[in-house]
Write a structure and sequence with these properties.
The chain has 444 residues and is mainly alpha-helical. The chain is 64% helix and 6% strand. The protein is built from 18 helices and five strands.
């Protein structure tokens, strides 16, 4: 406890770090305030029933928006249009040569890509805002629209939601520039964490009335949740180190190079993206539930605790993990960079043999990483089958827990770096916090 208090004092004594923490807290508070402001023309007293009946992909969007989506807030779309645009631009930087060339131009190229991402965010936000207006005209929310406002509700809501998304994007960029961590990721994490107290309380209320046994079960659930978080930290930080040797160069009387370093290969280099892609695909059959021939299929894909749902979901996560890793990981580029810097892997020839070796190592560590990621993805379904409330079970794995743990590790890594730069001890006595450090540039 004394060590913890001293660490907090060290953090607060660093002016730059203290300023970053205060700016981050202030911007997060502004964002959370905005999520409670209801759209013009909506009666907030009439949307509670509709908000309680969300599910499927709408429930996922609502989780990322911190409940703003179901509450018809001016920030209902949250940061998701920007995330969608960022993912699209990231894939285009890999698959489309002109964007790949921009990516290699350094800072100027990245600025252009960021500018294109902002333009695309506006377009995506406009499309999603129009779809959200149609959603608000569905039974449940339609009754909450004030009659006198209905004639120009569509245009005002579309403009307000698009402006809200751009405001959230601006908050995220300010957190990245002047605060701690990646702003978009921090905003998503805050939205997810905002649901935790209510989910915790619902689980408590469901278990306590059953007597002493219910309290024991609740304590066991918390213990399992802590164990899952610890395992997820290992998965996120797990690396396979490939030794790299740099050739010696003698210039005059001085020697350069000759150092032995390591090339870290992430066990989970794809991050949370395979789970997001798999969830998006798994939600598609539920959209066909109105057709009689697909109602049985929709019931299976609409129940996260169904055996067939979890099996298909796990297979898709494993497949998307290999696919996304193949897209973002380029062993030939790494081999060329090593050769250009006079580096080589001991026992492996430079050039194509090095690329083949790095690729084979990546394939070997991707398989266990993909399997573990699939297990994390279906853990909420198992928790729900064991009697955990649906809201609380979502924190036992899946997208929510992966984003939370990953963003917290990244933020703690930045804090630790600031401490070590000023010759303070790190946050832990042994080891260093590594964060995600993926080759992916997507916000999450």
């Amino acid at each position: 406890m004394k060590k913890f208090i001293q660490t907090l004092k060290n953090i607060w004594s660093i002016d730059e770090l203290r300023s970053k923490i205060l700016v981050t807290i202030m911007l997060i508070a502004i964002y959370r305030l905005g999520t409670h402001i209801v759209l013009p023309g909506i009666d907030p007293t009439k949307i509670d029933t509709a908000a309680a009946n969300k599910g499927g992909i709408l429930g996922l969007i609502d989780a990322f928006a911190g409940g703003a989506f179901s509450q018809a807030s001016i920030l209902a779309l949250g940061i998701m249009p920007y995330i969608s645009a960022s993912i699209f631009m990231q894939l285009m930087s890999i698959l489309y040569p002109p964007f790949a060339k921009l990516q290699k131009e350094g800072e100027s190229g990245r600025k252009k890509i960021n500018q294109y991402t902002r333009y695309l965010t506006v377009l995506v936000a406009l499309l999603q805002a129009s779809a959200y207006v149609a959603y608000l005209n569905s039974p449940g929310y339609k009754e909450a629209i004030i009659g006198a406002y209905s004639s120009y509700f569509w245009i005002s809501t579309t403009v307000t939601l698009t402006a809200g998304t751009l405001f959230v994007m601006w908050l995220g960029e300010k957190i990245t520039d002047k605060g701690l961590g990646n702003g978009a990721s921090v905003i998503i994490m805050v939205g997810i964490l905002a649901r935790l107290p209510q989910a915790f309380w619902q689980e408590w209320q469901a278990k306590i009335p059953t007597g002493g046994g219910g309290l024991l079960i609740f304590v066991i659930e918390i213990a399992f949740l802590i164990a899952i978080i610890m395992g997820l930290i290992v998965l996120i930080q797990g690396v396979r180190k490939i030794p790299v040797q740099y050739a010696k160069q003698i210039v005059g009387n001085r020697q350069f190079g000759g150092a032995r370093q390591f090339l870290p290969m992430k066990v989970n280099s794809s991050g949370v993206m395979p789970i997001i892609f798999a969830q998006a695909i798994m939600f598609l059959p539920t959209l066909l539930s109105n057709f009689e021939t697909t109602q049985g299929l929709a019931r299976i894909f609409g129940d996260h605790s169904n055996f067939w749902y979890m099996l298909i979901y796990a297979v898709m996560v494993i497949g998307f993990t290999f696919l996304y890793t193949a897209l973002i990981f380029n062993p030939k580029q790494i081999a060329d960079d090593l050769k250009r810097n006079n580096g080589f892997i001991p026992g492996v020839k430079p050039g194509q043999p090095t690329a083949d070796y790095i690729g084979s190592v990546m394939d070997k560590i991707t398989l266990p990483g993909a399997v573990l990621l699939a297990v994390v993805g279906i853990l909420p379904g198992f928790a729900q089958r064991l009697g955990v409330q649906p809201a609380f079970s979502s924190f036992f794995g899946g997208t929510s827990l992966l984003i939370m743990v990953g963003v917290i590790l990244d933020t703690l890594q930045q804090i630790e770096t600031q401490l070590l730069m000023r010759q303070y001890d790190g946050l832990m006595k042994t080891g260093r916090i590594q964060g995600r450090q993926t080759v992916s540039s997507a916000p999450i």
